[in-house]
Design brief:
Length: 243
């Protein structure tokens, strides 16, 4: 008969200590939603530019058939020039699928070009302030000031798919006039947004997944690049609609 020797008391605790030391315990496991939002805000406060590839999915009763799009987006944050005047943040979304669309703002005007309709709609950029993907990415928004920060929802129609090494938080707009009911953010360990789910008051869900995220690769001092990215001249024959 084989005899199993008991582990000495002191050796047992040493074994347990070594086991725990070797176990991968993430520091983010104890992070509160507010802490996650704070480190996310700090990270984006330190950026001056951002670009990424995106895939967008939208579905809901009022939106008809589920819609899918993809493309590239570019943002440059608001900055002060030599006279201390603030240059507004700039944005561009290039949709390549299902057909060409360009959404671009130089901080003063906002233009939406639809190739299939041969139309461009021009309005003031002021209307963009209410949108997270503009205000936050261009530096004019603050998560902790603009939203209630909560644990992620479990049953609200959102797809809380698990993504490795990400933390999910839920945002509820504090502004009563907001068209958004809730937002979920997937945040990486290096404090970048990997996924956004936006639910409006009509239960339309918009999901944005980001890849190839690049930070601080666009120089605001590169005037030709800024001109090329954040202005858009539509093709001849395009109808212009001013709002």
């Amino acid at each position: 008969m084989t005899t199993i020797k008991a582990i000495p008391h002191n050796s047992f605790f040493l074994f347990l200590f070594l086991l725990l030391s070797l176990s991968p315990i993430s520091a983010l496991a104890e992070e509160s939603p507010e802490d996650t939002a704070s480190r996310l805000q700090k990270r984006y406060d330190e950026l001056h530019s951002l670009s990424f590839d995106f895939v967008q999915n939208t579905r809901g009763q009022l939106s008809g058939r589920p819609k899918k799009g993809r493309g590239q987006a570019f943002f440059v944050k608001s900055i002060k020039d030599d006279t201390e005047a603030v240059q507004p943040g700039m944005m561009r979304w290039n949709y390549s699928d299902p057909d060409q669309q360009v959404l671009v703002s130089d901080g003063e005007t906002f233009s939406m070009y639809f190739a299939a309709l041969k139309q461009i709609i021009v309005s003031s950029a002021e209307s963009l302030r209410q949108y997270l993907t503009y205000s936050f990415f261009t530096g004019s928004g603050n998560l902790l000031q603009d939203f209630k920060i909560l644990e992620p929802a479990q049953k609200e129609g959102t797809i809380l798919e698990t993504q490795s090494q990400t933390t999910v938080i839920k945002l509820i707009p504090k502004a009563r006039q907001s068209q958004v009911a809730s937002i979920h953010l997937w945040i990486t360990e290096d404090s970048l947004i990997r996924r956004i789910e936006i639910l409006d008051h009509f239960d339309t869900l918009t999901i944005l997944n980001f890849s190839n995220i690049m930070v601080n690769t666009l120089s605001p001092d590169d005037a030709p690049l800024m001109q090329r990215l954040f202005t858009f001249t539509p093709p001849d024959g395009t109808e212009t609609i001013y709002q």
